[in-house]
Design brief:
Elements (H helix, E strand, L loop, with lengths): L2 E3 L6 E3 L1 E4 L12 H13 L4 E3 L8 H11 L7 E6 L13 H14 L7 E5 L9 H12 L6 E4 L3 H7 L5 E7 L10 H9 L2 E5 L22 H4 L13 H22 L6 E2 L2 E6 L3
Parallel strand pairs: 3-4, 4-5, 5-6, 6-7, 7-8, 8-9
Antiparallel strand pairs: 1-2, 3-11, 9-11, 10-11
Helix pairs in contact: 1-2
């Protein structure tokens, strides 16, 4: 395992992180035992970065992480969580200090800690990025000792570019894989110049690039790759999994070559849980 400084923070973390959505829910049935075993395996392999969210299994992912960390000795890994998606309706006006404080207090309890390493706004409406008061609220939560760092998980490159204009921004999480390469141009360059960490999510396209799927692969009804295949539940505008599955066969050789060149550490996949790749600076 290789390690690097996480953006402009004082922490060094593993280049490959554990994406903890699957151990929370929406990826089919995952038992508590399997979830804990997968996370233990990741930590045993040297991973020191875990990415979760308060809505993954309505807090189940955060609670499992806390249980696993209680069972282990040594330094605590860097745990990044997210907030905002508990809003209903999910609108920019809901990103207030009062609501963010409530979300963060809940995550503190779930993760059994007194300060969160990183809180990311969870794919907020674009308007949120044009409201400086939202980021002042995050600064206030830092001053209160509730969070150490904050960042944003975004859908679009333009949102990432706006986010890094805020001087306190520690990280931006964005989709980056063989299907979604646009961030590798202007955004990566600007983030590097500002010392902002980039968390590349869905590097294996929700399992599509693992080599474990075929044209006959089926997903459980409670797996988002089934119920959200047309983007009706969230992440509207992404190419559907069905389309990507059809493209998979044409791109198999290209994707293998691209991953070997771009990610010489080789993309990993364990027990169906996805890793996350950190920016190479």
């Amino acid at each position: 395992m290789q390690y690097r400084k996480f953006g402009n923070t004082a922490r060094k973390v593993s280049e490959i992180g554990f994406g903890a959505w699957a151990i929370g829910g929406s990826w089919g049935e995952v038992s508590d035992a399997d979830a804990r075993a997968a996370l233990h395996a990741a930590l045993d392999a040297g991973m020191t970065f875990i990415d979760t969210a308060d809505v993954y299994g309505d807090g189940r992912s955060e609670r499992i992480i806390a249980e696993v960390l209680r069972e282990r000795s040594g330094d605590r890994p860097f745990v990044a969580t997210k907030a905002g998606r508990r809003l209903s309706p999910h609108t920019a006006s809901g990103y207030t200090l009062e609501n963010l404080t409530a979300f963060i207090e809940r995550s503190l309890k779930n993760l059994a800690t007194d300060c969160l390493d990183l809180v990311q706004l969870h794919c907020p409406p674009t308007e949120v990025l044009y409201r400086p008061e939202v980021f002042e609220a995050l600064e206030e939560l830092k001053r209160a000792g509730k969070i150490r760092n904050y960042g944003v998980s975004v859908e679009k490159v333009e949102e990432g570019l706006k986010a890094i204009e805020y001087p306190g921004m520690a990280s931006v999480q964005i989709i980056y894989n063989i299907f979604r390469q646009r961030p590798g141009n202007l955004f990566f360059r600007e983030a590097k110049a500002k010392g902002v960490a980039v968390i590349a999510r869905v590097p294996l396209a929700s399992g599509l690039l693992t080599g474990k799927m075929t044209a006959t692969t089926n997903f459980a009804a409670n797996d988002h790759r089934a119920f959200n295949r047309d983007g009706s539940a969230f992440d509207r505008g992404k190419p559907s999994l069905a389309y990507r599955m059809r493209s998979r066969w044409r791109l198999s050789k290209t994707s293998e070559s691209w991953f070997r060149t771009t990610f010489p550490w080789r993309s990993s996949h364990c027990a169906g849980y996805s890793w996350k790749r950190l920016s190479p600076w």
